[in-house]
Write a structure and sequence with these properties.
This protein has 476 residues and is α+β, with helices and mostly antiparallel strands. The protein has 16 helices and 14 strands. The protein is globular.
């Protein structure tokens, strides 16, 4: 039998004053020390960069081949399609055999392409890394590109492109790129291609592209982890020494050869999504080169504006107004300058109000005060974020590969952070005035035009035009 507990008297609840929340003071950020980068090269031109990290018995290899989607030419989407096909079959293995062997070795392998490079990543325990590197070599040098696999992946991509028409965010991105970057610019077309370019893909085209794009003279193998330089070079010689220069190599246009896109006066582009509960807003313009000496000031300015959760845009649109789950802004850093983009998905009935807030904040960051708390918070966000980007072998490999894209050394990170810590409110204002012009922005809104157009037009931000989901002008 359970014991009988005494009945305790019910005490009245006493009203208490709510406690005042006090944000903790920001202390100095830990110092970031860059690891040493060792270098070597193979006779075929392949560059090797190594960072030793012996804390855990893991090795990460990231192979980047310059070019990427900038090699597409008149066939948008080809580079990303070929990169995704690399691990669908290679050597004597099909995709299932590759996956099974990777699992047996405790390894991971992925392939893909960006605007600027094709990337093959391999991670494995040190004891199985040499065996896993055989798979990496097969994927690089002996992909099968069978007609059956190409047809299956082509059909899947066509279906995905068709589905994107029902995804307002994907439509906004496509139309935004077409409006900001003119025809002929590398960023005008989506890196995933369109229905017309995808429908023509076949095994012969895919194979020819890879034979001409896979050039060891444009390749860098970044290796991080529990391995030494002699071990890494011996492994690279064993796996990649037979990689030869293509007879007819593809050549991507140099960044300096690409004409800078124009920055027309602010205009509004509406894309109709009838009965949509939300509107997708994308606002921006051609951006800035990563090697700009103003990179630190631009980064801090954007962090305060919309580059962090506590930024002005997110604080007002999400925390104060409740118009959206999140609002952000950012510069897409690429060798050929990508765009500046500010974006949010907002309720349909506050589309015009949200757009007005965006432009109000653009003006305020250019002209209004930036207080010491915002400066300290922005600096800490960037510096502490940089610390988290060097925690694992994959993180270090990714940072090295990214800087290689711009031809920058690893020491760039610490010099940029030091510069950011020296910036003042005047520097933030100067960066905003120079690189963020509210009178020369393109605004793309995907939403219910019948409900949002009157309010948007009443803001008088610029002329309003209507486009379809492919960016083509709608005359009626």
């Amino acid at each position: 039998m359970l014991p009988v507990l005494p009945v305790l008297p019910v005490l009245p609840l006493l009203a208490q004053a709510p406690a005042t929340a006090v944000a903790p003071a920001l202390g100095p950020a830990p110092r970031l020390t860059m690891p040493a980068v060792q270098r070597a090269a193979l006779p075929n031109g392949l560059q090797i960069q190594l960072v030793e990290m012996h804390e855990v018995p893991l090795v990460q290899a990231t192979l980047t081949i310059g070019g990427g989607s900038r090699l597409d030419g008149s066939r948008p989407g080809l580079a990303t399609f070929v990169a995704n096909m690399l691990d669908e079959g290679a050597g004597t293995r099909d995709a299932f055999a590759i996956a099974a062997e990777l699992e047996y070795l405790g390894a991971s392998l992925s392939t893909g392409a960006s605007w600027d490079a094709t990337v093959i990543r391999l991670g494995a325990p040190k004891r199985t890394f040499a065996q896993a590197a055989d798979l990496m070599a097969d994927v690089l040098l002996r992909p099968t590109f069978s007609s059956v696999d190409v047809k299956r992946q082509r059909d899947l991509r066509l279906a995905a492109i068709l589905q994107q028409r029902d995804q307002p965010g994907a439509v906004a991105q496509l139309v935004f790129s077409k409006m900001v970057f003119p025809e002929g610019h590398p960023y005008h077309n989506p890196s995933g291609g369109d229905s017309a370019s995808t429908a023509t893909l076949d095994s012969a085209m895919v194979r020819d592209f890879w034979q001409r794009a896979a050039d060891p003279r444009r390749a860098t193998l970044v290796i991080t982890g529990d391995i030494t330089l002699p071990e890494a070079r011996a492994l690279a010689l064993a796996k990649f020494s037979k990689w030869t220069t293509p007879a007819r190599p593809l050549v991507a246009p140099a960044p300096s050869a690409v004409t800078a896109p124009p920055k027309p006066t602010t205009r509004i582009v509406l894309v109709d999504k009838p009965e949509a509960a939300q509107s997708v807003l994308m606002i921006g313009a051609p951006g800035v080169e990563r090697r700009s000496p103003d990179y630190p000031a631009i980064s801090l300015m954007n962090t305060i504006l919309g580059g962090s959760f506590s930024s002005r845009l997110n604080d007002i649109l999400r925390e104060q107004k409740g118009y959206t789950y999140g609002a952000f802004s950012g510069y897409q850093w690429q060798p050929i300058p990508g765009p500046f983009v500010a974006s949010a998905q907002v309720r349909t009935n506050v589309t015009d109000s949200s757009l007005a807030i965006f432009f109000s904040e653009f003006k305020r960051i250019r002209e209004g005060p930036v207080d010491s708390i915002e400066l300290a918070r922005g600096r800490a966000y960037i510096v502490l974020g940089a610390l988290t980007e060097f925690e694992t072998t994959g993180d270090v490999a990714g940072q090295l590969a990214s800087l290689n894209t711009f031809g920058l050394p690893l020491s760039t990170i610490t010099s940029d952070l030091a510069a950011i810590n020296r910036l003042t409110a005047a520097d933030v204002h100067r960066a905003a005035r120079q690189y963020l012009d509210p009178s020369r922005l393109t605004v793309v809104i995907v939403g219910d035009i019948g409900k949002i157009r009157p309010g948007v037009e009443a803001l008088n931000l610029g002329p309003v035009e209507v486009r379809d989901f492919n960016g083509n002008e709608v005359t009626k």
